[in-house]
Amino acid sequence: MFERMPVALGDLVFDVRVAGPEDGTPVMLLHGFPETSRSWTAVAEQLAADGLRVIAPDQRGYSPGARPVGAHEYDIKELVADVLGLMEALGLDSAHLAGHDWGASVAWAAAAWHPERVRSLVAVSVPHPVSLTWAIDNDPDQQRRSAYITLFRDPGKAEKTLLKANAAAFRALFGTHIAKEAVDEYVAHLSEPGALLAALNWYCAMTREFGEIPAVTVPTTYLWSTSDPALGEVAARRCEQHVEGDYRLIVLDGVSHWVSEEAPAAVVAAIRSRVAEAPPNTLLG
Asked: Does the residue 50 lie in any domain?
């Protein structure tokens, strides 16, 4: 269903999966850690069937041709610049954005800093970065949920921990919520030389600037799942304080963190709704 294509941005080459008609309304899907664009397969199939143009990149560090060395290369501004650069390379002046996990954080920042490029936002699992930062600072429940970040910000130790014993700890992150073949692919992908270190650099590059991202003004839908072990209710409920445009919160009862694979229909419905309400898309050139 997906077609694979390389997209060059300067010295970096991104692996991008695309689906749907080339003249369809563009929707860019941003994956999280430790997945790849494969995580959007079920969502993309339904959106492409609607006639939308789906664009799902393997982001910086996940594409073998886009793994610069050094944590500073994975600053949130660099990650957002990749999103805008991919739009330009594909001839798009704007797109609908949907992101899960770290992809949601990038999508929040892109929408906040470049609302003219983001026609709507669907954020999955991770709330606005200011909401999450507040909860990590003030909510004991979220502090417990986010304790793993300390390990992930020590990439050498995290690499050894996640990949030892046939990547048992890596596989345990997913529980039984997604297909084994998907987990096998993610493990194989991030077991490539330098791949997991690059993905962990996203955590190493986090600064207090994360908690200073402006409010979002574009139409926004946020999906939070009650059985997500990493994201608690306090951050989810505070999210609306950081959206000044039309806002919807969708709560998915009993769904785990891996929403795009476990509950793709809910994600598709949220994206469809936002796309249907938006004015027609405009292409560059």
From this structure: yes
- DSSP secondary structure of 167-235: HHHHHHTTTTSS-HHHHHHHHHHHTSTTHHHHHHHHHHT--GGGGGPPPB-S-EEEEEETT-SSS-HHH
Choosing from 15, 101, 139, 228, the catalytic residue is 101
Q: What is the CATH number of the domain that holds 150?
A: 3.40.50.1820
Q: What is the pLDDT of residues 166-188, one digit of tens each?
A: 999 999 999 998 999 999 999 99
Give pLDDT tens digits for 247-268: 999 999 999 999 999 999 999 9
228 is catalytic: no
pLDDT at 91 over 90: yes
- With residue 252 as reference, give the H or E element that holds it: strand 247-252
Closest among 201, 195, 182, 169 to 63, alpha carbons compared: 195
Domain that holds residue 224: 3-277
Structure tokens at 55: 């664009």
- Told to judge if 101 belongs to the known catalytic residues of this protein, a careful annotator would answer yes
Q: Enter the tokens of residue 39.
A: 């995580």
Residue 282 located in a structural domain:
no
pTM over 0.85: yes
Q: Identify the active-site residue in 62, 186, 203, 222.
A: 203
Q: Specify whether 242 is catalytic.
A: no
Total domains, the chain: 1
